[in-house]
Amino acid sequence: MANALHETMHSEHVQWHSDISLWRDDIVAWQKEAAKALHDLKKAETALQEHVQRLDKQELALREREQLLRKHEHALANYEQGGPIGGGEDILRSVSDHQASATQHPQQRTEHERLKKHHHTLMARVNLLLKAIAEPA
User: Fold this and answer.
1) What angle do helix axes 2-80 and 91-134 make, rounded to 10 degrees?
2) N or C: which end of the chain has fewer CB within 10 A?
3) Does the reported pTM lie above 0.85?
């Protein structure tokens, strides 16, 4: 009976050593993957910072566009009240500027929608990553 018990224990020890060896191999592979992921996260952080810079640049461009529109609207109102068109512009230049704006506006709308889609996709993926990281092992 003692021999059977010892053989069983020995057999279990052999199996456990085998399991531990496999698990160690897993850990080594996972450590390499995690190290690569940390490196990739640094690149992702840089990309996210660049995205924030693009958002800031776009916001500034929108502010400038708004100022031009206000200036043009003010000039038109002044002209309609019998005054000069404003800023030394003549009516033909004002019309030309307006036509250029009318051409640019749909392009700006398309660009904004592209940026919006990219932003929402990016934020969704970041949130999924953060949730996965926060889950207990």
Assistant:
1) 160
2) C
3) no
